[in-house]
């Protein structure tokens, strides 16, 4: 079956959903099954956590220093301030991701609007 295999307006969305689910959900289930047998202190699990953290840090760094799209129009100082204040809110709210994201986004949008 191909992307152009069905002539229906909903088909591309279903195709992308199925393709995305198959590509990621298999690995998630393998992780769940294998992860339950691993010790939290095992070298493999420490390596996986370290690699995942490094990848996330790299993506955040790229978004801050070399953004694309609409984010590129925001001044670098606003982007860095939003990240720093969002991280501070995250820590002050006892590691609440929602608090960090909402505060960081508010600072980004407010600073962008103020300076443009």
UniProtKB/TrEMBL annotation:
InterPro entries, sorted: Brnchd-chn_aa_trnsp_AzlD
Short name of one Pfam family: AzlD
Organism superkingdom: Bacteria
Transmembrane segments: 12-30, 42-64, 70-90, 97-115
Keywords: Membrane, Transmembrane, Transmembrane helix
Name used for this protein in its record: AzlD domain-containing protein
Native source organism of the sequence: Propylenella binzhouense
